[in-house]
Design brief:
By secondary structure, this protein is of the alpha+beta class. It is built from 13 helices and 20 strands. Strands 5, 6, 11, 12, 13, 14, 18, 19 and 20 form a 9-stranded antiparallel beta sheet that branches. A 5-stranded antiparallel beta sheet has the order 7-10-15-16-17, with helices on one face. Strands 2-1-3-4 form a 4-stranded parallel beta sheet. 41% of the residues are buried. The structure holds zinc ion (2 copies). One zinc ion binds next to strand 17.
């Protein structure tokens, strides 16, 4: 991809994405394959006034080696400096960018037990610091193509062609091309999101009912305080930013422990390197009680039983089948993109920012209200061309989605 467009994209991520503030630190997490673009990002961040840019590099190859050769004890031993680093972040509140470019299957062949236990060990000591930053700093998940990833999305093309095609696909999802004033285009998009959210929030639905011919028949209660969000958001300090680029979803946090029925997947789910395909999950009293997958059933079971909260839902998201990502028909093998092709739900932690009055509640109070808490948050797709979603308030039905699209 030509440099001028890459720079335009970097500027979009810095200004409309994290909206870096004068003197604020920016942390970037990226694979070494993205080094060139990360340099561009850092340059644009400094131009926009960043006080310091810190990059936490990773490398799929090194990560693989580390899982292969280190003992479980060594992997689960989180050094004091890692904890200090997380603590420092929770105090200085840097803006954070997670730049994706790596192979979605990069860690497929490593021992999943090791990955899962090491993740749990790290979460145990680091999660409290992340929870403490909740809603306080700007963050952004975004992507550029890596070679292995591009080959997976476009397997028939030469690597260089595949990379260029994935660049084009990614840039089109964020409205970045030579002609478009992409910052203005995002302002517009955010306005449309706000109108939809305002409508949903006015309805104050008690519960939603999902129905689709593939077998989905599912009811999920909302909290009285559930807020629908989408597009840009504000930090508690009042900085407006876009946490996901691209994004097409409008989402909320449901009432944990209050859903019934069957959800049938409409797209494969890539979890810790395993592809889970054609599955359904049955819920009773808000908990996943039984499930079946044609492929990857064991991985699905592991995911659901990660911890106490991983069998409950933390997100309901609405995405119409006429969204640009859905229309592109591409499978990206990455949630940042694929979740924007379909209505979905997430197993695991809820969004505390999707609760009315969250600014005056502690994390524990929010969980008591009904926000689910878990170490995982994993989206899976349930949207179909014939999906109908109806909202109920005091017994009165209002269509939200009809045949996969917004009812109005
Ligand atoms: Zn989502
Ligand atoms: Zn999600």
């Amino acid at each position: 991809m030509k440099k001028s467009l890459q720079r335009k994209y970097a500027k979009l991520l810095i200004k409309q994405g994290v909206n870096i503030q004068k003197g604020q630190q920016l942390n970037i997490r990226a694979d070494i394959e993205a080094a060139e673009f990360v340099t561009l990002l850092a340059e644009e961040a400094y131009r926009a006034g960043a006080g310091k840019v810190r990059v936490d590099w990773s490398s799929t190859e090194l990560t693989k080696l580390s899982y292969r050769h280190r003992t479980m004890k060594s992997l689960c031993d989180i050094p004091a400096w890692e904890i200090e680093k997380a603590k420092l972040d929770s105090e200085i509140l840097p803006a954070q960018i997670r730049l994706i470019c790596e192979d979605p299957d990069g860690l497929a062949k490593v021992n999943q037990e090791k990955v899962s236990r090491a993740t749990i060990a790290a979460n145990k000591v680091l999660k409290p610091f992340r929870d403490a930053m909740d809603n306080k700093n700007q963050w952004l998940v975004c992507a550029i193509p890596g070679k292995a990833w591009a080959k997976k999305v476009f397997p028939k093309d030469r690597t260089s062609v595949a990379v260029e095609k994935l660049w084009k696909a990614i840039l089109s999802t964020v409205m970045c091309d030579d002609e478009t004033d992409c910052i203005a285009a995002w302002d517009n998009k955010n306005k449309t999101f706000k109108e939809k959210c305002d409508w949903l929030n006015k309805q104050q639905f008690d519960y939603l009912h999902y129905k689709s011919a593939n077998g989905t028949d599912f009811k999920c209660e909302l909290m009285k305080e559930s807020l629908w969000c989408g597009g840009g958001e504000y930090t508690l300090g009042g900085v407006y930013y876009n946490p996901n680029m691209p994004t097409e979803e409008i989402f909320t946090t449901p009432m944990k422990g209050k859903c019934e029925g069957r959800l049938v997947s409409s797209m494969p789910l890539s979890s810790r390197g395993t592809l889970i395909e054609n599955f359904y999950i049955d819920f009773e009293n808000g908990k996943a009680v039984s499930w079946h997958a044609e492929k990857g059933e064991e991985a699905l079971g592991k995911l659901i039983s990660t911890d106490e909260g991983s069998c409950m839902l933390g997100e309901l998201a609405l995405v119409p089948t006429d969204s640009p990502i859905s229309q592109s028909g591409l499978l990206y093998y990455n949630t940042l993109f694929d979740e924007n092709a379909s209505c979905h739900v997430a197993l695991g932690s809820g969004y505390t920012g999707c609760v009315k009055g969250f600014e005056n509640m502690s994390f524990d109070e929010l969980c008591e209200k009904g926000v689910n808490d878990s170490m995982i948050h994993v989206d899976f797709m349930i949207g179909t061309e014939d999906m109908c979603i109806t909202g109920y308030k005091d017994g009165k039905a209002t269509p939200i989605f009809v045949n996969g699209k917004w009812a109005e």
